[in-house]
Amino acid sequence: MSIIEDTYTLFIREMLIFKKNIGTNIARGLIFPLVFIILLGAFGSAPKNVPVALVNYDNSAASLNFINMLQSGGSIVVTSDTTQPLAMSELSSGQVAAVVVIPAGFSNPQGSSSIYTYLDNSQPQSAGVVSGVVEKIAAQFNVKSLTGATAPQAGADPISVVANYAYGAGSNYESFVVGGIIIMVAAFGAMFGSGFTVISDRQLGNLKTFLTTPINKYSILLSKIAYGTVQSSFSAYIGLAIGLLYGATIAAGLLGFIELLWIILLVGLGFGALSVAMATRAKQLQTYALISQTITMPLAFLGGAFVPVTLLPSFLRPVSVVNPLTYAVDATRDIMIKGYLPLSTLLLASAILLAFAVAMIALAVMFFRDTSRQI
After folding, report:
1. Which stretch, 7-16, 162-171, 270-279, 299-308, has highest mean pLDDT?
2. Containing H/E element for 81?
3. How confident is the model at residue 135 (pLDDT cuts 50, 70, 90)?
4. How far apart are CA 303 and CA 297, in angstroms?
């Protein structure tokens, strides 16, 4: 038979085993995302050092005092003092969580009557922190804080705060949490599904038996990767369903839902291949479990599954740039919160995840070839 037929036959075997343990697999697919969604959705500790772009058209002592007070509590850090077009560009690219504009005439009671705060609600915790801090400082200036586009009434205090939600005005923290968790579930599910079956077959002697049969030995490898991809996607789709019931939304609608399925599938493929590569080298289940968790959990954290990448310490951000989960999480949150994933962003995320998957498949083939000679 051809490698495709051999792979399909072995894949059916894996799926029959999956079906035999369907109750356990569904329970695992339910419990893992449910626990994380409830735990992370139930609390929202205020982040520190939220990056903000500042535009100061006033350049007076009063405006400088306002800026100093803005950063005094440690919740906000002004990462750039620039023009409004550049600041908005930083906001749209995710470099900052908000833009604060101090207009000319800020210190002049007869001048401008508003401070403009543009918030990116795809980072709801950060947006909430910025909004709260700006309003608190406005109160210390003995001025009235207004939200929305409402103009100050006649006789009102001369300075007001206007919050303009640049993205996802109707978003919620549940969508933020679920967007990261379903990617984490896909990665963890692939690591559990593919790698564990390799070690299990090796310990039971099945792997040695397969290698002595007249089938293409690489079909064993590919069937394990395919099984891990399907199994992890199954778990992630359950997690997505739980998240939607919990209150998350897919702002991009049906097209966004299809894009989510695609992103999840690519994550499962890449990490399924990675798990097979690791499992071919690990002889003990305990060793594999330790290594897989040591790799996957930090990658999920550094990919923004729990907190936005912009809030990571500066020395960790280069790691997030080369982390494939970063692009998967960003694309997922764009779909669920912003409601629009540009084609260029989708293609970039897909290309990076596919490149990661191809590299991991190549690594798995190399390791499997060496290991199969020793069995």
Report:
1. 270-279
2. strand 76-81
3. confident
4. 10
> What pLDDT shows up at residue 165?
44
Maximum mean pLDDT: which of 132-141, 207-216, 255-264: 255-264
Q: Cα(132)–Cα(46) distance, rounded to whole angstroms?
A: 11
The Cα–Cα gap between 291 and 273 comes to 15
Amino acid at 210: F
- Confirm or reject CATH 3.40.1710.10 for domain 50-167, answering yes or no: yes
Q: Under a CB-based contact definition with an 8 Å cutoff, are residues 257 and 225 in contact? A: no
**Distance (Å, rounded) from C-alpha 33 to C-alpha 300?**
14
pLDDT score for 360: 94
Q: How far apart are CA 143 and CA 150, in angstroms?
A: 15
What CA–CA distance (Å, rounded) separates 3 from 218?
A: 7
d(CA 362, CA 16): 27
Angle between helix axes 61-72 and 124-140 (nearest 10 degrees) is: 130
CA gyration radius, the chain = 25
Q: Is the pTM of this model over 0.85?
A: no
Rounded to an integer, what distance in angstroms lies between the CA atom of residue 225 and that of residue 263? 16
Alpha-carbon distance of 171 to 181, in angstroms, equals 17
> What's residue 40's pLDDT?
64
Range 171-198 average pLDDT: 83
Q: How far apart are CA 337 and CA 309, in angstroms?
A: 16
Beta-sheet strands, E only, within 147-241: 160-167
- Classified as helix, coil or strand, 338 is helix
Contact assessment for residue 94 and residue 310, using Cβ atoms and an 8 Å cutoff: yes
How many whole angstroms from its chain centre is CA 166?
Answer: 20
Question: What's the pLDDT at 1?
Answer: 58
Tokens 């772009």: give the residue: 53
